[in-house]
Amino acid sequence: MSDKSTVLLEHHLKELKLPTFLREYDKLAGQCAAEGTDHPDYLLRL
Fold it and tell me: What HEC string does 5-43 produce?
């Protein structure tokens, strides 16, 4: 993800008051990428 996308995503997560998503999305994205998990399953885990 580009720096611009990361900043924008983190801004939206703060505005939506989703602190757990903000804290966990990057770590979980790495795990899902390593496992080959698709986007819907990533979102479900998050």
Answer: HHHHHHHHHHHCCCHHHHHHHHHHHHHHHHHCCCHHHHH
What torsion, rounded to 10 degrees, do the Cα atoms 37, 38, 43, 46 define? Answer: 10
Q: Are 28 and 42 in contact (CB under 8 A)?
A: yes
Distances (CA, A) of 38 to 3, 6, 11, 23: 22, 19, 24, 20
Residue-wise pLDDT for 1-46, tens only, equals 789 999 999 999 999 999 999 999 999 999 999 999 999 999 999 8
